[in-house]
Structure formats: structure tokens, C-alpha cells
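User: Batch of two.

Assistant: Item 1 of 2:
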Amino acid sequence: MFLVMLAPVVIIVVFAIVASRPARLRLRGAHVLITGGSSGIGLEIAKECARQGGFITLAARSKSKLEEAKLEVEPHLQGGGERQCVMILPLDVSAPYDEIEAGIRGIEEKLGPVDVLINSAGISYAKAFEDTPVEKFEELMKVNYLGSVNCTQVVLPGMKQRKKGRIVFISSQAGQTSVFGYSAYSATKFALRGLAETLQMEVKPHNIAVTISFPPDTDTPGFRAEDKPEETNLIAETSGLFAADVVAKGVVRDMVKGEYMSIYGLDGFMLGHMTAGMAPCNSTLSALFQVLLMSPLRIVGLAYLKSFDGIVLKCMQKREKAKAATSAKND
């Protein structure tokens, strides 16, 4: 009875304190810069933004892959007028800041200032911690984290001056919970979350919105090329594999609405609301879910972690058994 009486009070309080969303962004005529735009999620985001009238700049390291990606995106151009186009920017986001700034400034001279920045460039590496070279930790941090920092540093002053803009960070579900084999990768994706939360607080008064996306395993060329430990693969199987275009449409939908967090699927729903903590929230419905479900979802999360620990233990025992058998055979 008490809980029934308390529910309306909770709803009223949440409604009163949850921050309002910024005005909905119209992509028609907006300059959208997408790092990592030559393949995977970045490429699919480019197609979706083109369908909604955006002027697209694809940025990535390989010029030849960018040219192929441009040909894929151009058929999706619509609603942006005769001037709507797709341009390419060969760019390594791990390069020195001056090079990144020069590249983005050059493209802005042609298409106008960047209205939307999608930080999608990223690389992965999946090995147990002791099997991960120290250089890999540095490489992933330069690309996945500092690459996003540097690109954002270039475009943010202009957005603040114009009092509008969107900045998107593509993190990962591995940036919400630990996964065996992703010690180098997860650290960079957790770092993006800290950056996004801080930046959102700083830019909100300037009518700029930050969205951080937490995709699950996604069917991309990079994902298919990964050589992952057995434990990582078995844990990944528990949440399934999403198509890149499904994730991309979710990113664009939430970015346009000005949502802070973009999540996907049942596992994404669970992780998003269970790990919200002090993260920004501008959706009353999401805030209510977080208030009401965080405790029961914690129980579900603990059950998942117990099953993951079981997977890791079984794989270790399997390797030790195989090693012992090999040793006995050699003796």
C-alpha cells in the first residue's frame, strides 16, 4: 500500500528534476563529420544522415576505402537540396593535433562549419592482459580516446559561437562492464564515458548536446577480423550480434533528439539503466526506469557476472588439462 502511494510522488519528483532535452536537430543542410566513416557503424551513420538531408564528410585513414565509401553513401542523398554532397577527408585521428585541425579546417572551408561530429573512429584488440603488448594500450588510447578528444577540440569553439551543435561518442557495452580480453579496449571506452559526462555539463548552456552510444557486438569488418580469446567469444555469445545499420539508425535517432545515452537491445537496456550512476539524463521515462529498476537489475547483473566467471574458469581448466596431457605424452 505504501509503495502504491509513493509511486505518484516519485513520478512527480523525477519529472520536476530531470533536465529537458535540447531542441530537436534538423539534419537537412547540416554538415556532419564522421570519423571512421569508411566502414562499419560510421559508414551506416553516414547513409542515415544523408537520407535525412545532411551534408556528409567521411574521415578515415585510407583514401581508397573512403572513395569506395563515398560511392556507397551518395545514392542515399536526399532532402538536402542540390548542394548536398559527400566529401572525403583522409585523416588519422591519432596524428598530432595540428594535422587534425588543418584537415578539418580545410573541409569546413568547402562545406561550412561542422554542425554534427560523430566520433566513430576506433580500433580493438582482444587478448588477456599479460598477452597484450604495452604498445597496444598506448595505440588504442591514442585512436579511441585521444582521437575523439582532438577532433572535438577542433569543432567545439565554432559550435559554442553559433550556439548549436551535436557531438557523438561511439563507446561500447565494453565501456559499461568489464569483458575478459578487453583490458586495453575497455579502458578506452570507459574513458570516453568520463569525457562525455564532463563535456555534456560544460556545453549544455551553449545549446550543444552530447550523445554517447554503447553498441553491443556489431557485425562490422573490424569485428569479423578480430582474433579473440575463447573466453571473449563465449561471453559475447550471451548478447548476440547486431547489424551495423540497426545501431547506426539508433545513434542518429538519439542524436537528433538530443538524448545523452544511446543503447540497444535488452542487454543494452539493462546495462544502460543499471550503470547510469551520476550520468546525465534528459528523458523522464529513462529516469523513472533507472529509479525503479536499478536494484533488481543489479541482481540480474550479478547473475551475468557469475556466469562469466564460470566461463573463464572452465576455459582455464580446459587449457590446463590440455597442457598436462601434452606434457604427459612428451614424457
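Item 2 of 2:
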Amino acid sequence: MTVTVGVVDDGSLAFRGVVEVLNGAPDATLVGVFPSLGAVLALEVVPDVLITDRYCADAAQQVRQARQARQFVACPGVLVVSGSADLGPAQVALSAGALGYLGPYASADTLLRAVDTVGSGDCYVTGRYREAIHPPRPVPATRDDATVGARPLSERERDVLTLVAQGLTHKQIASRLSLSKATVDTYVHRLRQKTGMSNKAGLTRVAMGFDAPG
């Protein structure tokens, strides 16, 4: 499936490179380069992924309001491609609701993987940012004792949770664990119930508390 992408251009040389990569991508369609988030949300059909250099609480609120006003079935997943290596902006963006975050040294292949992952509704954040933003909590003595609150996670649920945090789609997780996609869907549904998290970004934050398998 081809992912549609919109870019909010900050006028930087880095974003020219982003546009060039997208124009040459076989599985991504660039629908346009826009001067603001509002210009994207005003489209009759919004893209699957929105790439920007920053994403804050105000922007997240703008997306929510647009969805309520126009009854969007889905709003774009936001992927931040930052020219700064600082961790502070990453924390702000992900806390506000961005699904992906790439630093200034991301490769073209990494960008395309992130676009595909965010377009599927999953979270894509490089390991460095995940570790810095969500420091691991104390790890249970054994995997069998792992819990979220008072609700224990099975070993297989933890395997799925780990792969969700790594940015894999349900189909990719199914292939990795030799399961059907429907079974993975069921595991993710259970994880959401047990953790109280409604999306993949929330599950990623939960996963940072475990010494999960790679």
C-alpha cells in the first residue's frame, strides 16, 4: 500500500533532502509541500503522514479540533524530522502526540522506514531518543513477574510489546514471531486493555519500563 505524505517545509536545506527522498520512493506519494500545519488540515483528503520539523501541544490541539470539526476518519500521523540533536524537542513532540521522531543524521532508508511505520499507525522513534525520553524503570527479577500496574503480562505479550516499541507493524510482528496477523491484533488489543494505553505511542512508553527481548 502506498503511503501519502505531506511536508510542512521550514525552508531548510535538510527538508529539501526529505522532499527529494520522497519523490524517489516507490511506496510513498508526496501530495505536496505546505507552509503550515493548517494548510495540510484544510485539504479535502489529508495525507497519511505529515512530516514537520517540530510538533508541540498547540499543534496537537489543532489536529484534534480539525478532526472534530470535519469528522475525519483519521488524521495524519506526525513524523518529526529535526535538524537538532537535542533531546528536549523530541520529548515535547512525542508527549504532544507525534508518532515518529528522527534526528539530523537519519539516512534516507531510515526516513522511508519511518514513513511506512507511521503511515501504518505505529510509532517510530530511534533508540537513542526512546531511551533518553523514557528512562527504563527498575526491571522485574524475572520475565514471568513482569506487570503493568496489577495486571501481569505474559511472555508472548511482552514479546509483542517489545516489537511494537521497535516500530514494527502488526504484519511484521506476525512474521517475526511466526503468528497470524489476527493473533497479533488480539495481543495488541489485550495490551491496550492491560496498560490503559489507546495507541501505539502509549504502548511504546510502557515498553520502555521493561528489559524486553530484542
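The chain has ten helices and eight strands.
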